[in-house]
Structure prediction request, 131 residues.
Amino acid sequence: MEVKYIANALGRRKSAVARVYVADGTGKITINKRDLTEYFPSPILQYVVKQPLNLLDAAEKYDIKVTLFGGGFTGQSQALRLAIARALVKINAEDKKALRAEGFMTRDSREVERKKPGRPKARRRFQFSKR
Prediction:
């Protein structure tokens, strides 16, 4: 059976990238061919992913297929939240105002600062010794 996707979108956070494909359905979220509860066992991360859907009462309307890679679980969940929000706006442009008010449409641009030479980390310095 051919699935007809009605919207797709991309979300990024730190080094995580989420590609989302939305189709009409029953509310099933599949991430890298695994169920949402299996991929994100933490209820907090599941809540983060579902925030835009719950805001618009669309949790049971769409089936979402996700390709996630890069980053850690927190960055991945937030990248997925952004991608879902962008896909919902493609479906219905009137939802953008509500999603933006909650901050789901803004890409968090913070990235890891690079390590500098002569230091143990990006900003940390070696312990100073007077003698």
User: Anything to note?
Assistant: The radius of gyration is 18 Å. The chain has a mean pLDDT of 93.
